[in-house]
Every structure is written in C-alpha cells, then in structure tokens.
Specification:
heterodimer, A: 243 residues, alpha+beta, Alpha-Beta Plaits, three-stranded antiparallel sheet, 9 strands, elongated, B: 116 residues, mainly alpha, 84% helix, 0% strand
Chain lengths: 243, 116
C-alpha cells in the first residue's frame, strides 16, 4: 500500500464512519422501552396528579391576586378622578360624540334670490336663535359646519362674515348636526323642528332650512381648540367654608 | 494498514461527539448511502489485494455510488415503488461477493505464508 492510497482510503473510511455514526444517532432515538408495571405507572400518575393540583393551586392564587389588584385599581381615587375627567370632557365637548340625531342643512333658496342681489348670508342672530330652539327641544351636542358648539362658542359677525369659533360660515349648504339623548328624543326633536317657525325666519334671509330624518349613528367632532379659562380660578380650600 | 481503521474510528467519534441527527424521513437515504459506501470500500480493498487498484476509480466510485443510491431511493419514493430495494439488493450481493473474495485471498496468502 502506497501512501496516497492509504490516505484516500482513510478519508473515505472517516466519511463512512461519520455517516454510520449519524445514522446510528438518528435511528437510536426510541431506545428507552417502557417497562413499568401497573403499580409503578399508578405511582407515577399520582405524582403527576399531585404536580397538576399544585400547579392549579398556584394558578388560582395568581388569578386571585390579579382580581385583587384589579378591584384595588378600580376603587382607587385615580380611577375615580379619571372617570370624572372623561365625564367632564364629554360635557365640555372635548370628545367626539356618536349617537342618534338629525341633521339640518341650510342652503340659499335660489328661487327667492333676485338677480343682482347680494348672495344670501346667514346672520349670527338667526343662527343663535336656531341654536336656542334646538337646545330648547332637547339637543345635547351640536356642531355647525363640523365646528362643535360648546358653552363658550362665539357666533358673531366679523367684517360681514358670520363666524363661529373663527370659522367662516360662507359656504352653503351649512350642515348642522344635532345629537339628542336617544332615538326617541331625536324623533321628537325632528317633529318639533318641522313645525318650528325658525324656518320661516330663515326664509326672510332667502335661506332654506331642510330638516333631515333622524339617523341612528351621527358623529359630532370634538372641539378642536383648547378652552382658555381666563377669569376663573379654583377656590382655595383653607379660605372656603367659613360660613 | 492501520490508517484507514484510524480514519473509521475518528469518523465515528466525530459523528458521535457532534451529536448530529438528520430528520427521520431522510434516514432511509443515509442508510442506502452507507450501504453504497461500504460496498465501494470493500471493493477497494479487494482491488487492492488483487493488485488492480486504481485510486481514481475508487474515489469516483465512492461518491458516484452514494449519489446514485440516494437518488434511486428518492426516485422510488416519488414513484411509489420501493426502488431503493434494487440498490439494497445490488450492493448487498456485491458486498457479499467482495467479502468472499477478500476472505479467499487472505486465506491463500495466510496458507502460503504458513507453508513457508
């Protein structure tokens, strides 16, 4: 045997050895036979059952802990404050509101417009009147041309353009969305607006008010600016309650 | 003479130490490849003893047989015919023949040396 012959033989032998070893390891796997008898199996089963019950106990105690923490969290002052805050925000109009309501659209009555007249414009007084009427008849959230109406909303004439919160109302039709307390209230509001005299008042300004049928899912956007409070400050605790 | 045996042992040790396993479904191919490799190895040893050994034939035969056997098994799996049995049969017969030849040669060698 020459040296190179030996070398190639050895390399191939090594490869064969490797293959055999791999095959051996692959095939060997189900090597352990289960030779336990009934009693041993029973004992093992008991052990596993004990482990299971222990684990179940642990799970239960952890769940109890979670529930405890949950109730603590719910009863905490923080949660109460948070709830109050959301309620107040809702009331102040800082959140988007969805609910049953109706839409009114105000558009120029073109058959009443005489050629050469100024294009009709909505006057702030009329709008305020309409708003009052709506509020009287059970409107809860109102938006005019997607501008949310809140307690501090200003409707006024600036340079002959009626503005609401700084948003010009010069594009017709102007859509007024109103959300009532529930579907029934919305229906009532619709009926009342139908017979209201406000529409006739708008007619004088060559405007037509169309009251649309109530819808179940009306979305009124949130008030977009921040509310600035300039003349209010919180009551100081130590000074109050003197009487 | 001892170098190939050393190689075999080293290969086995490496294989056992590295803990390589192949998926169960491929173990068929590996077993047929091992059979082919063993056949080639014994063929090589016989050729060596008969003095007709050619290294190129040996090395190329080794790899070619492995690939052929594995692809035959692969084809068999895909055709639904147990084609690997053909390889097992061919290699098995050849293995026995080769080992028989090696045995005879070794026996004659041994008897001639003992006669001397």
């Amino acid at each position: 045997m020459g040296r190179p012959t030996n070398l190639s033989f050895s390399i191939i032998a090594a490869i064969i050895g490797l293959m055999v070893a791999i095959q051996f390891q692959t095939v060997r796997e189900p090597e352990v036979r289960d030779t336990r008898d009934t009693w041993q199996l029973r004992e093992d089963l008991m052990k596993e059952k004990e482990l299971q019950s222990k684990l179940l106990l642990e799970i239960r105690s952890n769940e109890e802990k979670v529930a405890k923490y949950e109730t603590e969290r719910q009863q905490s002052k923080e949660e109460v404050l948070r709830e109050t805050l959301t309620e107040l925000k809702d009331e102040a109009g800082l959140t988007e509101v969805t609910g049953p309501g109706l839409t009114l659209s105000i558009a120029p009555a073109f058959n009443l417009v005489v050629d050469g007249d100024n294009p009709p414009s909505i006057s702030p007084d009329m709008l305020k009147r309409l708003l009052n009427e709506l509020n009287m008849y059970g409107a809860q959230h109102v938006s005019i041309d997607d501008e949310r109406v809140i307690n501090t909303t200003v409707i006024r004439d600036i340079n002959r353009v009626t503005k609401i919160n700084g948003h010009s109302l010069n594009r017709f039709p102007i859509e007024i969305k109103v959300i009532a307390e529930n579907a029934e209230a919305a229906e009532k509001l619709y009926n009342r607006m139908k017979v209201s005299t406000v529409a006739e008042d708008f007619f004088i300004d060559n405007l037509e008010v169309k009251v649309n049928r109530p819808e179940n899912e009306l979305i009124i956007p949130a008030y977009q600016d921040t509310i600035r409070i300039r003349y209010m400050e919180p009551v100081k605790k130590d000074k109050g309650g003197g009487s | 003479m001892w170098l190939p045996i050393m190689g075999l042992i080293i290969g086995v040790i490496i294989g056992l130490l590295t803990d390589i396993t192949i998926p169960e479904e491929y173990s068929n191919y590996l077993s047929i490849a091992i059979l082919a490799a063993l056949d080639t190895l014994f063929g090589g040893i016989r050729a060596q003893l008969q003095n007709i050994y050619d290294e190129k034939v040996f090395v190329s035969g080794f790899f070619f047989n492995i690939v052929l056997a594995a692809s035959l098994a692969f084809l068999g799996v895909h055709l639904g015919v147990d084609l690997y049995l053909a390889a097992v049969f061919a290699f098995g017969v050849r293995l026995f023949q080769n080992i028989a030849v090696i045995r005879r040669i070794l026996l004659t060698k041994w008897s001639t040396t003992s006669e001397k």
